Amino acid sequence: EKDGHDWFMRKEIFEQPRAVADSLLGRRNASGLLELDEMRLDDSELRDIDRIIIIAAGTSYYAGMVAKYAIEHWTRVSVEVELASEFRYRDPILTRSTLVVAISQSGETADTLQAIRHARTQRSKVLSICNTNGSTIPRESDGVIYTYAGPEIGVASTKGYVTQLVACYLLALYLAQVKGTFFGDEIHHVMDQLDEIPQHIESVLAEADQIYKIAREHVDATSVLFLGRHAGYPVALEGALKLKELAYIHAEGFAAGEIKHGPIALIEPGLPVFCIVPPRGRDHLHDKMLSGIQEVRTRGARTICLAELDDETIAPYADTLIGLPKVPVLLQPLVAVIPLQLFACELATVMGHDVDQPRNLAKSVTVE
Ligand code: F6R
Known about the structure:
- It is a single chain.
- The strands form 2 sheets. The protein has a 5-stranded parallel β-sheet with strand order 2-1-3-4-5, with helices on both faces. Strands 7-6-8-9-10 form a 5-stranded parallel β-sheet, sandwiched between helices.
- Helix 2 packs parallel to helix 8, helix 2 packs antiparallel against helix 10 and helix 4 packs antiparallel against helix 12.
- The model has no long low-confidence stretch (mean pLDDT 95).
- The longest helix is centred in the middle third of the chain and has 21 residues.
- Helices cover 43% and strands 16% of the residues.
- The radius of gyration is 20 Å and the shape is globular.
- It has 368 residues and is an alpha/beta fold.
- It binds fructose -6-phosphate (F6R).
- The site of fructose -6-phosphate has 15 residues, from helix 4 and helix 12.
């Protein structure tokens, strides 16, 4: 049942190319327009949406953070992302033109469910992104985008997360189509780029042994930091969460630009710091990241840099370099998260932990 893998988690990591492909399947109709069948919200309702609030917990929340970059960039609709457990307790301002998007792999997370119930009493429309057909959250939503990861058994979310990202991109593109902020050929172009993601993930997985080796070099680590910028920032948070929950090692993710406002004081010789390097582009993201890496390295950090395969600017500052396929910055989370999942899985394994059932955790959190 684990397809020869030692853990469900590892099996699920390796299923990600298939999970992404399935979640993209059949989303374009014969005339090339995006169609999301379970959407159930009319285009006219969506056209009136002027604000989006994404609510979720844990890894799903980090998927929501990535969604914000894509939705705002492609649709010019303002997006807030909030933890479900915080949302309800601050008396949020919701109107008929607010779309609430709940992201939940299980569809049963109590805080997320209570949050959408609250949103509906305020007459906001609720759309859910969910992996579990017939679960409570999609049943209580106005519309759903299902992900097709298949059952996720490992407590730590992996294929659930990448397919949530896919659903977020689909939602962003669909809104752009409805609102006319994106022309048909631009939507096609991004969909074509998404269709290439499964093979890109495959190429990252083909280098799993390199990541396992790096993981085995870190069995004595007591703290690991993760730095990212832009869409790489939520990936840093996700990498840190995977390490905490599986290896029980202190880990923190930071926005790279924030470290000089405090966290840089944590850097001491030998501290492992993962750095997620944005693709080189016309913006300054890449160069800004490079200077962040230099700052921590000067202070003795051991840098493990995830960067485009042919990005030779990083080598001088990387103690370890992990190559990533060339994809646009907004889609980079889909490939950049894979080495971080492999790292946490392998490190937890060599430390002798139960990867599928980490201590103190449950697969779905049905208490508030
Ligand atoms: C982490 C993890 C959790 C879940 C969170 C939300 O690996 O799995 O953080 O992401 O409990 O669960 P869902 O998506 O089912 O609402």
